[in-house]
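Input chain follows. Return structure tokens only.
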Amino acid sequence: MLSADGVKMRVSVVLPASGTGDRFGTCVPKQFSPLLNQPLLLHTLNAFHRLEWVGHVVMVVSDDALEELTSQLKEWPKLTLVCGHSTRHRSIQAGIRALAEDGRPPDAVIIHDVVRPFVEEELIKQVTLDAIRYGAAGVARPLVSTVIKVDGEGMLTEALDRSQYRASEMPQAFTYSVIKEAYDKADATDLDYGTECLLLALKHTGTRARVVPGPDYLWKVTYKKDLYAVEGIMKEQLLCAAVRFSDGGEDLELLDAISTCCQLRSVTVLRNNDQQAKCNSWVFICKSGPADMDTGLADVCNHVTAKDGETQFVKPCVICVLRVNCEDTERHFKNLISNQSEKHPSSVWYGIVSRRKVSDAEKIGKMVASLLWTREETLTGQTFTIH
């Protein structure tokens, strides 16, 4: 529950996710497009489901996706899936009606597009508290281009003063009574052609929404190219690594090269077997014999296996680096990487062998960065050689 002026408020979320995404240009709707290790809609769902003060999330999906998603998302306790309709407003209306099916409607309702994965808790909370105070609230951004009007022949007829207008974004929030009344009173034209929830509340309940200036990360995935930008931003936010040296000693030059090339938000050095690393990437540096290699790798496995079976947005990655110029050791190393990949299919495993004829720190750093950021699953279990 969310506290507003000392009063506990029940908050629910409606996520419309039944659109076909015609502009996206693929046969698969954009909300199901793979992003890192999960479909796009799951990233957005997680942004709200993880909030302790959100009690219920309704995701509105298409009829042909309902059965499969019900099976896949059964472990999300706050989530209810309902069948959507052909238009945005009709789908949202279905979600709002589902909120009251248990006879206990929430005090406030948040509406958010499922193809907008970037949303921070503080912004969600601000919009919700403003909605409780004013009846409705939303987020807006300044226009970056001038809006013009053209006639049926494609000729310019009008240009708006963009300083007087804003681009409406998400999330938006309402008291339950306001948003329910707005949709109850909406006519067929509203439901079939409208897209703006705040305007629906103004038109049918007289509620003037509080508009909050929003950050620039609130854009939504509209075209296929947007997925590449989203993936890059997510990796930048999520990727972190731990580095473990097999003999306990630290090669500061190599450590600095890995940190510089990978450009991660966090790089931790594991200095003992008991140290826990809350990371999604591990780099194991081995520069001694097979026995030490096996022991050190077993330590790394302890961190990785703890992740097996969990839903993760970034698939765990282990990169093992061998710096011994010995064919027998190299052969043993390659077998180890291949075997670990088979034993832990929920993670990706790569090996790097450096023959160490010249200084190799920068080359290893660049190779580690390439594998860590790409995380190509078809290459798991493979070992790459730096000459």
